[in-house]
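Can you give me the bound-state structure? Components:
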Amino acid sequence: MNKNNYTHTLTISDVKVKDEFWSNQIRLIRENVIPYQWDALNDRIPEAAKSFCMRNYRLAGELIKRRKSGEVTPVFPTDIFETLPKDYDNLEDKFYGFVFQDSDFAKWIEAVSYSLNNYPDKELEKIADEAIDIVCAAAMDDGYLDTYYIINNPDKRFTNLRDHHEFYCFGHLCEGAVAYYEVTGKDKLLNAVKKYADLLCEKFGPADNQIHGYPGHEIAEMALIRLYNVTKEIRYLNLCKYLIDERGKRPYYFDIEHGIKDDKKSERYQYHQAHRPVRRQDEAVGHAVRAVYLYSGMADLAKLTDDDELYEACEKIFNNIIRKKMYITGGIGGTHIGEAFSFEYDLPDDTAYAETCASIGLAFFARRMLEIRPDSKYADTMERVFYNGILSGMAEDGRSFFYVNPLSVVPKACHLDERKFHVKPIRQKWFGCACCPPNIARIIGSFNTYIYTENEDILFFNLYVKSEFKRIVNQKVLNISTDANLLKDGNVKITVLADEPVRTTLALRIPYWCNNIYSLKNVTDDEIIIKDGYIYITKMFEKETVIEVDFDMKPAIVKADRRVREEIGKYAVVRGPLVYCMEEADNGANLHLIELSKKAELTVCDNDIFANKTKKIIANGRKIRLDDDINNDKKQYLDNNNRQLYYDADIEDEYEPFDITFVPYFQWANRGEGEMSVFVRGYEEA
Ligand code: FUB
Ligand code: ZN
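Here's the bound-state model for the whole set.
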């Protein structure tokens, strides 16, 4: 690690996104997701599963008061993951919902914070303040703030770290509180979180009278760093370090916690990334969201403490993900069993999990790695994930969502084949386990913090998005504006306005998709150095300087590493950061009969199909004729063979020429239910 390489992201209020597409996404979150989620948290959506989230907070606050006044309140079992009432009209004074239901509020308040930054709104802020009052009133005197245990039985808290998400809820609450403080300056929730964090610092650590455990679902690690950054309280940093280094030690804490005898099978703990100390891990394993949240915390800690060993582990894991375990869309998690990473190169299309939250977590991880060392592979990954695996999680109108993001869908299979029940062919309004939609809300709300990174000497352009901000170099102000629209073309125009002459460096990422083909204007050769996928331009900026770069954005046909069994003989169509797919709406049913010529001419056309004006791509290919269309000799043969399922390979398939229409993957399923496939079988033209 070289400290000179370190950068930081710009804060939420520094960068103004001016881009039509991304501004629209941010607006959708404000107009649809945030109010809808608030109604969901308050159980006001008739057709949706009840959340009980705010009701749990209110009840916890009420019980705390009643207990203080000497009332003995009933206790309930705490060995459950989800409780639903028997009678919805007569709720008992117990906790309902998933054990991590509190986190829904936390993600909501984080998304609200970013939204208030983008669109100041007194009414929304008032709702948020009132919600914070309810949440803070639920805190115990010592700071503990998790309604599952407060309601059901406070004596049992911290007894099931493996399954019961206390650290997870804390982590989300912490992120929400810091965001709210940063945007509004209000510290009520932040103070509650600090008090809770102080309790955790007291309870967890190496001393004999402390618990030697760590979170079953990670996120607290990176949240503690965020809390440390805003408070500078060293104990939060120390707790983060403790939680990270304790994971995977033998005997396993989760074994001790659950009275399990260590059976030496460390694989059992892969689900929690606890199979060995994190510094010795080099492969992304287990529950994908947990994993990338952990790796993000590790990267944060590595940077803050200049920890080479930890950074090396992060680097190995990052490479493992992008080279062996990531879908072309930036989705991660090849299996729904345990919502987890599968083994290397095991990336099935139609049973994929690729949870939206996992893609979001990968963007967190990539951004943190980028802050340690500017290498385009990190920003490339961020871009891949944002434009594909994250955006696909939300419908164009911002009103429905995917949890699972498959690469191929046959709706009938989702309805009839149990192995694919987790895959939904159309986006859903909400989920009982509503982790993904609010996660989309918070990452899109904070999208502006992913565009640039900087240190004293260099400003890095990581994502190309129309945006503006001010940079101070040697006490001199530079007004920077970027003009770009990657949904349209690869042209990027950067305008730098300097009141006084300033010598500084701008580093422009060379996106992987341009294959190193680009042209630069207004820069001389001696002003440029190319390193790790960035063009470093060092020059004197005076008055107005316009730098223009055209990244080649020809559509392309790509294939997967030969070890990805699923995609052998198949191709995908891409253009710029966008991965494309075929949909039934354009190509008819039975997408599996379509083949793409490897040498196909790809024609980029405007599309009037979707609200967001992306480009569609037409490619020449062919389609296998089904029985009705085939010639008589063949029909005869099949009839003679009683239409067997398998027959002589000499009976060649018949094809018809077929123009294949590809649309951006993130826009799929905006036209009702239908088949979809990213990869298509290829053929060599004679
Ligand atoms: O366990 C909390 C969240 O629910 C996880 O992050 C998601 O994968 C879903 O299981
Ligand atoms: Zn999720």
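A couple of observations. Residues 334 and 342 are 5 Å apart (CA to CA). The pocket of zinc ion (ligand 2) is lined by residues 355-357, 403, 435-436, 439 (CB under 6 Å).
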